[in-house]
Amino acid sequence: MNKTVRIALVALLCVGAAACSKKQEVKPQPAPEQAAPVQAPVSDGKYTPADLDTDACLRQRVVYFDFDKTEIKPEFQQIMACHAKYLQDRPTSHIRLEGNADERGSREYNLGLGERRGNAVSDALQANGGSASQLEVISYGKEKPVCREHNEDCWSKNRRVEIVYTAQ
Amino acid sequence: MIKPMRKSSPSFAAILLAVVALFVAGPAAAQSLNVDIVGGVKTATPIVVVPFAQAGGAPLSTDVADVMRNDFNRSGKFRSLAKSDIVEFPSKGSDIKFATWRLLKQDYIVVGNVADVGNGMVQVEYELWDVNKQQSLLHQQMPPAPAGDLRGVAHQIADIIYQKITGVRGAFWTRIAYITAVGLGNHTTYSLIVADSDGYNPQVVARSKESLLTPAWSPDGRKLAYVSFESGNSSIYVQDITTGSRQLVESHPRGINGAPAWSPDGSKLAVALSYVGNLELFVLDLASRRETRLTNSLSIDTEPVWAPDGQSIYFTSDRSGRPQIYQVPASGGTPQRISFQGQSNLNADVSYDGKQIAMVQGNGNVYRIAIMDRSLGDQVRFLSPGPIDESPSFAPNASMLLYAATEGRRGVLYAVSADGLVRQRLVLSDGDVREPAWGPFRQR
C-alpha cells in the first residue's frame, strides 16, 4: 500500500468524524504557501508528539467492550486508524495496551479476558498499519476498575483497553 | 515495591485489630451481627463450654472457652450455649451437676482449667462429658504452651472434641491466607496476610503498591505461592512464611504469569501462562524449573487446581463459549468438561477427598458459590447468596469454606459451613479483603 492510498484510507475511515478530521484535512493540500508568516512549521501530514495532546482522535485512548466479548465495536475503528497512523508516522513510538475487565467472574479468568481484549486492539492496530514491535499488551483483569458500582453502567466503563504511549 | 515481612508492622497491626474486633466482637455480638442462621440449625449439636478456671498467675488475655465456643458455632455442626446463659461453673467432671445441663438441653459439656506453670508457660486440662449418659468421653492435659499461644491450644482442644463427636478431624487449628487492599486508586496498598482460621493473629507476609492475587498454600503449610504485579506485569513468587525468603518462579516478560496451584506432593506448580500467545496451562517442576505445557486451545485456560490424588487437574476454560470447569490428566491429554449447570462456572476448588468441587457459578448478573458433589451424580447445591461471590476455598476437612463477597463497594470474606447454614463474616474496617485460601492441617 503506498502512502497516499493509506492516508486516503485513514481519511475515509474518519469521514463524518470531526474527531479525527484535522490531520487529514491538512494533508491533501499543498504546502500552505499563502499562510501567514507565524504559521507553524510546514506539515507533511505526519503526526507529531504534540498531536497526542491536541488531535481529537489521538486523544481518545480508551476502547470499550461488551460483556464477555473481545470484538472491537465499529465506533472504535477510527481510533484504531489514527493510532495506527501515529505508529507508522513515528516508528520509534511505542504503545502499551492495558486490558481490563468488569468485576463479574474470578480474578484470574478476568486476567485472561483483559489480555484477549488487549490482543484484539493490538490486532486492529496492526491491521491498520501499526507494527507488532511497537505494541505490547498487559492485562490487569479486574484489578484496576475506574468505577466501583455494581451495575451495567459501571461495568461497561471497566470493560476497556487503555492505549498508553510509553514512547512518543 | 514489595517487602517480604516476618511480622506485621504496628500500623498494619492496628488496622487488622479492627478486623478481629468486627469478626469476633464477643459471642453475643457475633450471634446477632455476623452469624446468619438460616434454619436447619436444629440439627446442630448443643454443647456447653464452661469458662475454664484459672489456677494462679496473672489474668490471661485469652478466654479459652470463648475461642472454643466460637469455633463450634462457626462449624455449623454445633450450637454452643451462650456464655451469658451459663449458670454453674464446674471446672472438673466430678463437679458437674448433670440435671442442670439436661434442663438446658445440652448434649455435651466441656470443663477445664488453665494452670500457670512458670516462665510464662501455661497448661490446659479439659474434660468432655456426655450429659445424657453422664459419661466421660475425654480427659486430657495439653502440653505446656506459652501464654501467648493459648488461642492455638484452644483451637487444638476444639479439634479433638470435634473429632470425638463427629468422627471427622477438626480444622480449627489451621491458618488462612488472604489479600487486603487499603486506600484508593494509585494509593492502594495490597497485603498478603496469614491469620488463624478465625481471623486472629494476622501477619503480613508481603506488601505491594500493585495488585497481589491468588495465594496458594504449599501442602506442608510452610510456603505461599502468589501472583504479584510489583514489576509491572504479573509474576509468580513462592515465599517461605516463617523466614520471609522468596523465589521468583514465573516471570515471562510477555503475557500473564498467573494462577499458581501446588501439586499434592509439593514438587510442582500448575500455572497459567500466555507467553505462547494464548493463556494456557503449564506444569512447572520446582526443582528442575522445567515447564510442561498441558493445554492447547484458542480459549482462556486458567485457574488450575489439582485433584487430591495428583492424577488430574481441574481448570476454567471458555472453549465452549462461556467459562466452564474442565478436568485434564496431570500428565496431559484431552480435557473433559465437568460443569453443565449454569451459564458459567469458574474458579474451582476441590475437597480433600476429591468428592466435592466448589466453584463460582454465574447466572445472569448473579455469581454464587456452588458445590458439585461428584459422589452424588454431580448434584449441585448453592452455598452463598451472591450477587458477586468468588474464590471458594475448602477447609482441609471440607467442613467449611471461605469465599469472597462484595458488600457495597467493599470486599469481605465469609466463612460458611459446608451445609451453607452458618455463615460468619470477616471484614476489614478500612478496605477490601479478598482471595481467601484455607491452609492445610498443621503439624505440632
Automatic annotation (TrEMBL), chain A:
The keyword Lipid metabolism is assigned to this record: no
Cell location: Cell outer membrane
Membrane topology: Lipid-anchor
Domain spans labelled OmpA-like: 52-168
Any coiled-coil regions, as ranges: none
Keyword Cell membrane found: no
InterPro entries for this protein: Bact_OuterMem_StrucFunc, OMP_bac, OmpA-like, OmpA-like_sf, Pal, Pal_lipo_C
Record-linked Gene3D superfamilies: OmpA-like domain
Region (Disordered): 25-45
SUPFAM superfamilies: OmpA-like (SSF103088)
Pfam families associated with the record: OmpA (PF00691)
Low complexity bias locations: 32-42
One annotated Gene Ontology cellular component of this protein: cell outer membrane
GO BP of this protein: cell division
Entry similarity comment: Belongs to the Pal lipoprotein family.
Function: Part of the Tol-Pal system, which plays a role in outer membrane invagination during cell division and is important for maintaining outer membrane integrity.
Protein name as annotated: Peptidoglycan-associated lipoprotein
